[in-house]
Design a protein that fits this description.
It is found in: Cytoplasm. This is 16S rRNA (cytosine(967)-C(5))-methyltransferase. It comes from Dorea amylophila. The protein is of the alpha/beta class. It has 4 domains: about 130 residues, NusB-like (N-utilizing Substance Protein B Homolog, Chain A, Orthogonal Bundle); about 30 residues, no CATH class; about 55 residues, Alpha-Beta Plaits (2-Layer Sandwich), CATH 3.30.70.1170; about 190 residues, Rossmann fold. The protein contains 18 helices and 11 strands. The strands form 2 sheets. Strands 7-6-5-8-9-11-10 form a 7-stranded mixed β-sheet, sandwiched between helices. A hairpin with a 6-residue loop joins strand 2 and strand 3. Helix 6 packs antiparallel against helix 7 and helix 13 packs across helix 14. It is globular. The structure holds S-adenosylmethionine. S-adenosylmethionine binds next to helix 14.
Amino acid sequence: MQASVNERELVLDMLLQITRDGEYSHIVIKNVLDKYQYLDKRERAFITRVVNGTLERMIEIDYIINQFSKVKVNKMKPVIRTILRSSVYQMKYMDSVPDSAICNEAVKLAGKRGFVNLKGFVNGVLRNIGRNLDKISYPDEKDQEAFISIKYSLPEWMVKQWLKVYDEETVKMIGKAFMEEKPLTVRFDEHKIKKAELISILEKEGVTAGEVPEIPCALYLSGYDHLSALPSFCEGLYQVQDLSSMQVALWSEVKAGDQVLDVCAAPGGKAIHIAELLNGTGHVEARDLTEYKVALIRDNIERSGLTNINAVCQDAAIYDPHKKETADIVIADLPCSGLGVLGKKPDLRYKMNEKTEADLVELQKKILSVVKDYVKPGGKLLYSTCTIHREENEGNVEWFLKEYPEFELVKEKQMIPGRDAGDGFYIAILKRVNHE
Ligand SMILES: C[S@@+](CC[C@H](N)C(=O)[O-])C[C@H]1O[C@@H](n2cnc3c(N)ncnc32)[C@H](O)[C@@H]1O
């Protein structure tokens, strides 16, 4: 079997798992890259790019296919629809393979998957699209919602929602930022290793490390193949974390000896960052809902070598009387719609809808109303999400301040993709000012 056929078959199965079976793209990609470690760097990069790219552009791709196919995308067999989608992505957005080869591989794959009678259909649609790719008619730009939806592959309901809060240029900037490839960012413990020493270790491993001017404990990494194969990663010299997420611990202004409770901590990024800043003092309890998630936190704690942090399985929506007024800082980095991280998790835009968003707002309110009681008088509650959805962010904080006047807002920030360096992210610091 040719390597290229194999790659395309993997891509097909991965996209089916994500779009048909509802699995998460980042988990599917990670599992495949872990399983097929023998693939070379180019093949791994190809698989990742085609899967992510197809998901990033899927609304536009379906719009194109529908112009050239009598059978509309939503009426096609999942295998056929998926073969067409990933082929159109490669034809429009990747120069590495000629259109004729993309088309031949797609036809072969349809046959191999038992759709011998649809080989002609796949061939016809793809050849037609290939001939007309530069003549596609897009919605008029004056039809703001439809134009932005197709151009940036964002569901129309989402575009409509964002246009109520952000101006048109900002929504386009966000859509564009989600499609740009960004280098990986990692955070290291400045008490454990000097930046220059870490950069030199990484360079010896063949990794390019760039400094992040605004965050001294962060580095941009590029040029590596498989991060978990690097000795520096296995030794816990750094943790993968987005620049926006790093702001939570930095904003917390944690002091030596503080008691910190992170109520939704897996896989542990922010909790471990705070434990590092405590520099061997104080304590962080990192909680999450399931034993599976808690095991992820424990793995990361072990890799970090820290001793002032532990992980506990506990539902944040259920009050734990033992924790009443015990924490100097409560971190509530709550489950959210994730619409700020579509650049890394492009499939979330298809998994989320207005009803699931509204349910999340209720869950966030519920958890905030429970965990606020763990904050000591004078202590802080840090609320954060990785979304740009106003109701989950400023909306929830407005509600919280009205419900619980014993808290006041110290500061808040909505980070916007394209304008700020990292993911779309929201942080609010709420201080417990009296004991009412
Ligand atoms: C945004 S993620 C947390 C990321 C984490 N703070 C970090 O920096 O690595 C939200 C977490 O909330 C957890 N979660 C969801 N519902 C929960 C609940 N009722 N109680 C506790 N954790 C919950 C999820 O399992 C998920 O790990």
